[in-house]
Amino acid sequence: MIITSCSAKGDPNKMQFNSNQELSEAERNAALKEIEPERIQAMNTMGLNILQQMGTKDKTDGNNLLISPYSIAAAIGMAYNGSVGETRREMAEVMGWSGLEMEQVNASQAALQQLLTHPGKGIQIGIANSMWMKDGIPVEETYQTTVQQTYEAEIRTLNGQPAQAKEEINQWVKQHTEGMIPNLMQEPPEKEALMILVNAIAFDGNWMDEFDPEYTTDEEFKLVNGKDLSVRMMHQTKQFQYSEKEDWQAVRLPYGDGQMHLLVVLPREGRALDEIQQQLLDDHERLDTGSEYRLVELSLPRFRAEYGINLKETLQQMGMKKAFDPYAADFNKMIPSGPNWQAYIGQIQHRAVMEVNEQGTVAAASTMVGMAAGSAPPTDPVKMEVNRPFMMAVVDKDTGAWVFAGSIYHPDPLEKN
């Protein structure tokens, strides 16, 4: 099974999964009632845990780390519907779904998808799902119906020729990420592949207050190894939601009419990014404690970040073990075990792309799960110079869901417009 989730700058004429009709207040409130804050926090925490796991391996190389917690949750959610027994228990524990009925998980996922695809003015999001099935595999009808109804998934036939299957899936992902993820699958699926599940999300957000390009200048960004990198630094002094502690500063830059924002967390000089992430894992309310609108003199690099990883090992370390075991995995609610097969997760590929510039943010992320057999603001401005490694997240305001999250160690330059 392959699941992808992507976010990208999109052509509104191509974003067929994004409704132009906004939700009414009653519809929005009804959707919010289906989403428990604890589930959103579990998703965000899962994202932070993955960033930390990846960071211990890659930060010394200066690689940017970028994922979509929402994408990963949606991808695994489709597989979770087919799981049974100990396989389901482990998946639930890692994803924060323990103690919930499957109907609750699905209702929450469907409500979050509804809210994200109606993000307000200045933001466009399109979400698409598909299920690619090998001919002759007896997929449970109840499972197929659930994936179609909850995730609005398209049903596709998985090409029996691995090379052709790779091409068809990559084209599907490319189309639904506005071309930002052209090659999710680096290798053809194994011949034993029974099913591929794909989730794609396309995102295009314009700042509520754009940065003036005339004030963008060449400045130095300090890398982990102590060297300096020349970056294009954007500047803006505006009222932003801001919080700080002894070890870090955090600011939220709103998109559109404010229904989503970019959260930027900057460690103080001498503090490491993984230390700050551990603080947030220990106390997820820390970011919002004392948060208020302040006049912020902000310096933020314009950059492009791209990252790809097989999440199998990371999720195994987090406790999701049986799902990947070809002999112990139990996905009988998806594909009943037969004489020649037993379904298990062979791999989970994730790829994310993000660009931040004076106008806003464009991003794309793709996850592939391979299944084989406040108060008046003070007047004095606070200075926040994002000139060293930082964490960021694209956040849905109403739910607090992290659509994207990343650790930026090396702001790669954007192509000149």
From TrEMBL:
InterPro entries: Serpin_CS, Serpin_dom, Serpin_fam, Serpin_sf, Serpin_sf_1, Serpin_sf_2. CDD domains: serpin_miropin-like. It comes from the Bacteria. Residues 48-411 form the Serpin domain. Transmembrane segments: none annotated. GO terms for cellular component: extracellular space. GO terms for molecular function: serine-type endopeptidase inhibitor activity. Coiled coil: none annotated. Pfam families: Serpin (PF00079). PANTHER family: GH10112P-RELATED (PTHR11461:SF211), SERINE PROTEASE INHIBITOR, SERPIN (PTHR11461). Belongs to the serpin family. This is Serpin domain-containing protein. It comes from Paenibacillus xylanivorans.
